[in-house]
């Protein structure tokens, strides 16, 4: 841009000829990076006249305007650099010097000393060589302007400048940050790296602290290796610097005012971090290795999946640490951590993220290989899921899960390139330089707190043993492991350095080793900063040991409901609604007045209102949660004139609880995992994840299998998350019919979760309230309706809401003579209304229909009551819309058999077994639906 303008001006100015090339090259450097030119030149280029007041990205200005502008600068003496031009060759070299600086900022990391094993074979980067820019040996003794390089003053000898650039950008730290578009962020990083040449000047106390961390990291591994040879521990050896890194992050965060840190990490180094950072007693870990365990009600889990909590003392105050429980899936814990952090921030009223910080620790192959990482990065700055940035550490041991080399596990130069999608700065660091590691750790905390964005540390290290301690790595990495066997440990390298520089005496180093080993022998906590937990902000005690059938009172005076209904149906006159939405709200006004029965959307919203009025939180996320996928909720109202929003649920009473209804990112796994993490950190209130279609839960199956269904059994973690999964056969094809009810029922055991299929507005109202009012906290899986949202028979009265409760089983509602009934049909969900309408149409009076609204835990007592009048019946049928191999038939029929009278038979009415959840042809669907209804009613 403007090149033609500049050329025209130069040809007519005293800067013509060789000097014009100088200015044009200066402008090219400015275009690539405005910070690469001096302040006076940048001021000139920043103020190039736009066209008719447009931005600089607009079409070029007329040549005469720019020419006149430069002439006026020269005449007024304001352009000092131009006025000083005397040597065209020297001035041209000045541009090259600025380009050399810029090259190091952009590509210095490619020439950095990052690999402790020195096995990386990297092509030399030509841009980093002064000769590439036409700079000669003679130039090395010349003084040049350093532009915005923040070290050594405005001018430096080129030799000194090159040395400073190499130290800053090509040492033990490789900084990738020039992909960031925000100039303030780039300048901030430059101001932190360049003045100190990318190094920290630590005193003896900090250096000793770093060595203590390395000593502990190595010491626990050697101790476990000797005490439990051959046992899996997923050793940290080679990446020992993770321990001092974590400790420095905690110290820095505590100084900045952070009160809680939530950590997520997979297996590698987890036991080390548990003992040496969080303060787990080694004796407890040794008992786990020996096969001992505390008596619990659950199955437990392997030691390298366990979580832990403690308080850690820092000069800025104690910091509460929580290491999240982690299943075998290598990265799925990351959004869980983010959800837990968001819940803690919300509880503290922390809007900027400072008080609660997440740290996620990744493997080099996993961070690129697992899609959940991309999903979590994508969430990081969105409205409903931001947490003020996270610190992401990659323990980069340069080997994949077992045998993979980097060219087998990714298609990019670095495993951290995925982070560039959110313009996160990436600091690669050689793990054998622990002071550089500490420097980067502190820098990462400061960046995160300053800009509220993710930051990545790539801890380049190695893995001293195989994938686990029984593995033989040299079978597939012979050269690497030949080098590793000869390579000194990080502790020895650093200890030798400190001894050589007379910071610590050799005897003191030996004493530290012995002291740590003695502490392990005693089995007590080895973290001197460990403190008993006092920083918990939530008490789970009221929810422990509770069961799903425990009595509770959720009734409300009808007058209170009436007032809430009035509040919910009110919309300010200035808030213009879309016509269909306006009709929904006019209907709600009529419902509030008692002129119309309540539909699904209004009853559901009333449930939220009662919870909020009780000062509890409601959080709903999903891809269409504001309006509801099927246009029924409309809790968030969009003004048709100015696109502002109004939430009636935020305007029901003074001092009400907060509500967040968020249209989520287009992801299921990460969002459900986030909400699981939120619900495990916040027992009060109501947290809901809503699938756009029920089958979308397929993409979140890992979360369902490894957290929701089994988290309590494995780890004792309670969670009251509610999942709304649209389910019902409407002729919309395989993927838009079934929420895979059978999968949830297959996972049900030990009263681990609830699976409900509500069929009326009153039922959804009571079900949602029950999830909060009742003190039990377990996941609730709801097969929620589609066509029932507006079905004329699926309505309820205000009295049913005020004075009723959730019915796990709903018996026959028509007046049938019980003695004449010779068949009882069990069913759940939408098919009930089709059975009911067909029975009424055909005047059938010998078949009773019973709805099972809670399929698990199965309500045996309520079923006995519903069947009390039908003990003479011998013919029972389970009717479902799903194919025979899906739905509730195979998973729940043992409950049906237990409920029916002795000697009675139980048969199936539904679709035939199918590999697909439903057919895709409307005519075939209608035929199948009619057939299954007729079969159930003996037609």
From TrEMBL:
Entry-linked Pfam families: 2-oxogl_dehyd_N (PF16078), E1_dh (PF00676), OxoGdeHyase_C (PF16870), Transket_pyr (PF02779)
GO molecular function: oxoglutarate dehydrogenase (succinyl-transferring) activity; thiamine pyrophosphate binding
Cofactor(s) listed in the protein's UniProt record: thiamine diphosphate
Keyword Oxidoreductase: yes
GO biological process: tricarboxylic acid cycle
Annotated CDD domains: TPP_E1_OGDC_like (cd02016)
Residues annotated as domain Transketolase-like pyrimidine-binding: 598-791
EC number: 1.2.4.2
Source organism superkingdom: Bacteria
TM segment ranges: none
GO CC annotation, single: oxoglutarate dehydrogenase complex
Keywords: Oxidoreductase, Thiamine pyrophosphate
Function per UniProt: E1 component of the 2-oxoglutarate dehydrogenase (OGDH) complex which catalyzes the decarboxylation of 2-oxoglutarate, the first step in the conversion of 2-oxoglutarate to succinyl-CoA and CO(2).
Family classification: Belongs to the alpha-ketoglutarate dehydrogenase family.
Name listed for the protein in its UniProt record: 2-oxoglutarate dehydrogenase E1 component
Gene: sucA
């Amino acid at each position: 841009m403007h090149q033609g303008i500049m050329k025209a001006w130069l040809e007519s100015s005293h800067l013509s000829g060789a000097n014009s090339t100088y200015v044009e090259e200066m402008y090219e450097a400015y275009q690539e990076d405005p910070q690469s030119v001096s302040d006076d030149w940048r001021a000139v280029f920043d103020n190039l006249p736009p066209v008719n007041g447009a931005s600089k990205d607009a079409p070029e200005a007329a040549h005469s305007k720019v020419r006149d502008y430069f002439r006026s600068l020269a005449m007024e003496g304001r352009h000092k650099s131009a006025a000083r031009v005397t040597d065209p060759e020297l001035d041209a070299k000045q541009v090259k010097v600025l380009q050399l600086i810029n090259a190091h900022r952009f590509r210095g990391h490619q020439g950095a000393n990052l690999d402790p094993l020195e096995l990386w074979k990297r092509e030399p980067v030509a841009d980093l060589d002064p000769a590439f820019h036409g700079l000669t040996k003679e130039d090395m003794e010349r003084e040049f302007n350093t532009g915005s390089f923040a070290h050594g003053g405005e001018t430096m000898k080129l030799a000194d400048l090159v040395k400073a650039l190499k130290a800053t950008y090509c040492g033990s730290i490789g900084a990738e940050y020039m992909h960031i578009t925000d100039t303030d962020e780039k300048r901030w990083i430059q101001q932190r790296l360049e003045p100190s040449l990318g190094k920290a000047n630590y005193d003896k106390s900090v250096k000793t602290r770093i060595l203590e961390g390395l000593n502990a990291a190595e010491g626990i591994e050697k101790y476990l290796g000797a005490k439990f040879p051959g046992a899996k521990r997923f050793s940290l050896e080679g990446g020992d610097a993770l321990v001092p890194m974590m400790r420095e992050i905690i110290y820095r965060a505590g100084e900045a005012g952070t009160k809680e840190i939530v950590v997520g990490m997979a297996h590698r180094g987890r036991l080390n971090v548990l003992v040496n950072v969080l303060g787990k007693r080694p004796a407890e870990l040794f008992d786990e290795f020996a096969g001992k365990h505390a008596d619990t009600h659950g199955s437990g889990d392997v030691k390298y999946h366990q979580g832990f909590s403690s308080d850690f003392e820092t000069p800025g105050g104690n910091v509460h640490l929580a290491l999240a429980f982690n299943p075998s899936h290598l990265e799925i814990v990351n959004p869980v951590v983010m959800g837990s952090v968001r819940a803690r921030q919300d509880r503290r009223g922390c809007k900027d993220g400072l008080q609660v910080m997440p740290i996620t620790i990744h493997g080099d192959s996993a961070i690129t290989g697992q899609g959940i990482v991309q999903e979590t990065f994508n969430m990081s700055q969105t409205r409903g899921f931001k947490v003020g940035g996270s610190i992401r550490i990659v323990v980069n041991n340069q080997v994949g899960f077992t045998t993979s080399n980097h060219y087998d596990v990714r298609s990019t130069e670095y495993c951290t390139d995925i982070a560039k999608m959110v313009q996160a700065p990436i600091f690669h660091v050689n793990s054998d330089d622990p002071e550089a590691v500490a420097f980067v750790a502190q820098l990462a905390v400061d960046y995160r707190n300053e800009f509220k964005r993710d930051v990545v540390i790539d801890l380049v290290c190695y893995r001293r043993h195989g994938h686990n301690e029984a593995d033989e790595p040299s079978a597939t990495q012979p050269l690497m492991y030949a080098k590793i066997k000869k390579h000194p440990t990080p502790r020895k390298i650093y200890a030798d350095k400190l001894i050589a520089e007379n910071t610590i005496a050799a005897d003191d180093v030996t004493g530290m080793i012995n002291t740590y080993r003695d502490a392990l022998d005693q089995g007590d906590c080895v973290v001197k900063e460990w403190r008993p937990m006092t920083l918990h902000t939530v008490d789970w005690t009221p929810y422990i040991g509770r069961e799903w059938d425990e009595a509770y009172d959720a009734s409300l005076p009808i007058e209170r409901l009436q007032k809430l209904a009035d509040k919910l149906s009110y919309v300010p006159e200035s808030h213009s609604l879309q016509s269909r939405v306006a009709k929904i709200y006019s209907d709600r006004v009529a419902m509030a007045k008692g002129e119309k029965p309540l539909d699904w959307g209004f009853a559901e919203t009333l449930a939220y209102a009662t919870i909020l009025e009780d000062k509890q939180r409601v959080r709903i996320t999903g891809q269409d949660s504001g309006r509801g996928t099927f246009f029924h909720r409309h809790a968030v109202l969009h003004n048709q004139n100015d696109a502002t929003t109004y939430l009636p649920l935020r305007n029901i009473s003074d001092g009400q609880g907060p509500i967040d209804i968020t249209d989520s990112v287009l992801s299921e796994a990460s969002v459900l995992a986030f909400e699981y993490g939120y619900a495990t950190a916040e027992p009060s209130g109501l947290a809901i994840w809503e699938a756009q279609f029920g089958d979308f839960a397929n993409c979140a199956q890992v979360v369902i299998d490894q957290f929701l269904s089994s988290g309590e059994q494995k780890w004792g973690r309670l969670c009251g998350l509610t999942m709304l999964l649209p389910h019902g056969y409407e002729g919309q094809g395989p993927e838009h019919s079934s929420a895979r009810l059978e999968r949830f029922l297959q996972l049900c055991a030990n009263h681990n979760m609830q699976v409900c299929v509500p069929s009326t507005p009153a039922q959804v109202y009571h079900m949602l309230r029950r999830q909060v009012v009742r003190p039990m906290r377990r996941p609730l899986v709801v097969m929620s309706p589609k066509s029932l949202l507006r079905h004329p028979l699926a309505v309820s009265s205000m009295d049913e809401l005020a004075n009723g409760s959730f019915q796990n089983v709903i018996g026959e509602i028509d007046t049938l003579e019980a003695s004449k009934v010779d068949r009882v049909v069990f069913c759940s969900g939408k098919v009930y209304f089709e059975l009911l309408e067909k029975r009424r149409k055909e005047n059938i009076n010998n078949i009773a229909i019973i709805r099972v609204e809670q399929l698990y835990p199965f309500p045996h007592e309520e079923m006995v009551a519903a069947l009390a009048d039908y003990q003479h019946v011998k013919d029972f049928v389970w009717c479902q819309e799903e194919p025979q191999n899906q739905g509730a038939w195979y998973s729940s029929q043992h409950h049906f058999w237990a409920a029916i009278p002795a000697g009675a038979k139980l048969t199936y009415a539904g679709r035939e077994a199918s590999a697909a959840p439903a057919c895709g042809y409307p005519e075939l669907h209608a035929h199948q639906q009619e057939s299954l209804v007729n079969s159930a009613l003996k037609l």
